[in-house]
Write a structure and sequence with these properties.
about 140 residues, mainly alpha, 2 strands
Length: about 140
């Protein structure tokens, strides 16, 4: 098989992946005040990884990113469930959010909320599920 010259694709993908990852992080962190959060941020991050899979071969990307995506999805679901159960320990309805303002050294007065932990679980579940599906489809040749 002839080796293709993908210099332009690889150059554009490097820049595009950084932009997509930055946007995914922005979507994740803006989740409790604006549209976004764990689900959309996780999908955007999965899109960046998929672009890497399309630009390079899956084996190369997996060698440099040795995550077990099935375990990642399961861990994310468990984090989301335990976040919801945590509110029951304080006699509050399931998935009740708690938040507070804290003085952090670099950031100053910052709001921290349990919704961020829930969003982290959702993001891990979405990334793990999407990547497992894409890898399974790619292996079915």
């Amino acid at each position: 098989m002839k080796e293709q010259n993908d210099v332009i694709l690889r150059s554009v993908a490097r820049v595009a992946v950084v932009i997509i990852l930055t946007f995914a992080i922005n979507l994740f962190f803006s989740g409790h005040h604006f549209p976004g959060g764990g689900f959309v941020g996780g999908l955007a991050l999965a899109c960046a990884i998929t672009l890497l899979f399309l630009t390079y071969d899956i084996e190369t990307v997996r060698a440099n990113m040795p995550f077990d995506f099935k375990s990642m999805a399961a861990t994310g679901v468990l984090i989301a469930i335990f976040t919801g159960i945590g509110s029951l320990l304080f006699n509050a309805p399931f998935l009740t959010q708690a938040y507070g303002y804290f003085d952090l050294p670099i950031f100053g007065k910052t709001e921290l909320a349990t919704a961020m932990i829930f969003d982290l679980g959702v993001a891990l579940a979405v990334i793990g599920t999407a990547m497992t599906i894409i890898i399974t489809i790619s292996e079915d040749r």
